[in-house]
Design a protein that fits this description.
By secondary structure, this protein is an alpha/beta fold. The protein contains 14 helices and 14 strands. The strands form 4 sheets. The chain has an 8-stranded mixed β-sheet with strand order 6-5-7-1-8-11-4-12, with helices on both faces. A two-stranded antiparallel ribbon has the order 2-3. Helix 6 packs parallel to helix 14, helix 9 packs antiparallel against helix 10 and helix 12 packs parallel to helix 13. The longest helix has 26 residues.
Length: about 450
């Protein structure tokens, strides 16, 4: 069955039943008020990038891919740094990438590579938090484990400053929930509350039994029972005087209404998740594997109007190549990634969707310049690469540069907050906007700067 995973601990109420009852526990007490946003300034509104994207597809390579073996090869470096791979030419003049992404080399005119991404914390949990939310520091109270002190993920922030009225969240994360027994931060609504969580779809879209039936109703829950439950909880809301505080009473009503709306609206997306509606040749083009079918599902969600789709390229730390880095990249990781991403870019372009869809492929950091004794590369956040396409990105170019060992930026460094500013701006959200948390405290949603060279 399709699972909508719990987002804080495996002991928590199931995500599926969670949706049937309400958005934050059975009664939804203590949820935040709806957030407010600043009006877009005239200067931001005149930015050519602003609002260009209707959707963002974020390919997250959990575990941190080896940038110097895929996007930023150093053929003149010492052998213990350059490794086994040699760069190949692409269709973009002067742009070279690794030899095991040949399909991407043929569509390099559609994407740009930023080779000077950087931050200061090479820890999977913390860096995942940074990259998936657009912050450069751990928020107060947050740790290496997911909690309601975390900064909200991109879709949660979007939901906070631009609320949807149809009951559908602003984002979907698939096909894995990144966890190590505990969840990694950056995948939920964080301090904004669970009503801002994205959908977590945790089943392989390549599986023969992949479906969305369980998202609508549990087997024992009919439409009439939903209506009855809604009426009962509404009555409880009006009758229990001890609930009548500004936060609790508003939260209860909002939680019940959100859950009801979601159950109704989810049916509209059932066809989107029916992968059998895609022609066999299209599914084959993306690849009959989790990477490819996740990206095909991402394209279907783009067509359905989902603003933010995060497609995790594997489970937790899938790209964490401490050992046999070159064998893992060549044989296990890069072939499905190369096939899936190249198919997505081509498909979006052919359907006229690439111009309004921002595609980003990135991990939480990079890998060490020095190859270790096991033939692997270890954690390194001094510099890494990210790939951008669509929504006005000028393809066929490289932004920034690393030094001669791919260890540190040789040009201006770009940070996770800058990634966030770019994503929000593309979606038509002013990074200067504010959101108000459950304690009534305002937070500026982003402190970064747009990666403007992408669009010039």
């Amino acid at each position: 069955m399709l699972k909508l995973e719990p987002i804080l601990s495996t002991a928590a109420i199931s995500r599926q039943r969670f949706l049937q009852v309400g958005f934050s526990g059975a009664l939804g007490l203590g949820l935040a008020d709806l957030s407010t946003a600043r009006k877009v300034s005239a200067g931001m509104g005149s930015n050519a990038l602003f609002g260009r994207a209707k959707s963002v597809v974020l390919l997250f390579l959990s575990g941190a891919p080896s940038h110097q073996d895929i996007w930023d090869l150093k053929p003149d470096a010492p052998a213990e740094v350059r490794g086994e791979f040699r760069p190949i030419a692409t269709v973009a003049p002067g742009v070279q990438i690794g030899p095991h992404v040949p399909r991407l080399a043929m569509v390099a005119d559609k994407f740009a590579i930023v080779r000077s991404m950087t931050h200061s914390l090479p820890s999977h949990e913390h860096a995942t938090h940074f990259v998936l939310t657009g912050v450069n520091q751990v928020p107060p109270g947050a740790t290496h484990m997911a909690s309601r002190a975390d900064w909200p993920c991109y879709s949660a922030t979007m939901q906070a400053v631009r609320p949807r009225e149809d009951g559908v969240p602003s984002g979907v994360m698939l096909p894995t929930y990144i966890h190590n027994g505990y969840g990694f931060s950056g995948q939920t609504g964080g301090f904004m509350g669970s009503q801002y969580d994205p959908w977590h779809v945790t089943k392989d879209p390549n599986a023969a039994d992949f479906n969305i039936d369980e998202l609508t109703l549990l087997p024992d829950l009919t439409n009439q029972r939903i209506q009855n439950r809604r009426s009962l909880l509404t009555a409880m809301d009006g009758q229990h005087g001890y609930l009548q505080t500004p936060a609790s009473s508003q939260s209860l009503s909002r939680s019940v209404e959100k859950a009801h709306q979601l159950l109704g609206a989810a049916g509209k997306f059932r066809d989107v998740f029916d992968m059998n509606r895609e022609p066999a040749e299209v599914r084959d083009r993306y690849g009959r594997h989790a990477f490819g079918q996740s990206l095909l599902l991402a394209r279907r969600l783009v067509e359905a109007g989902m603003p933010i789709i995060q497609a995790n390229m594997g489970t937790m730390n899938n790209w964490d190549t401490h050992g046999d880095n070159f064998g893992q990249l060549k044989n296990r990781l890069l072939p499905p990634f190369d096939q899936g991403l190249s198919a997505l870019l081509t498909d979006l372009d052919e359907r006229g969707l690439l111009d309004t869809t921002l595609v980003v492929a990135v991990g939480e950091f990079g890998r060490t310049p020095q190859i270790n004794a096991g033939g692997g590369r270890d954690h390194w956040s001094g510099v890494f690469s990210a790939v951008f396409a669509g929504a006005g990105v000028r393809g066929g170019q490289v932004i920034g540069a690393s030094d001669d060992q791919a260890a540190y930026p040789a040009t201006r460094g770009w940070y996770p907050a800058d990634l966030g500013a770019t994503i929000f701006t593309a979606l038509g959200i002013d990074p200067e906007s504010t959101m108000t948390d459950r304690q009534g405290r305002p937070h500026k949603i982003n402190a970064g700067q747009i990666i403007t060279p992408l669009f010039s």
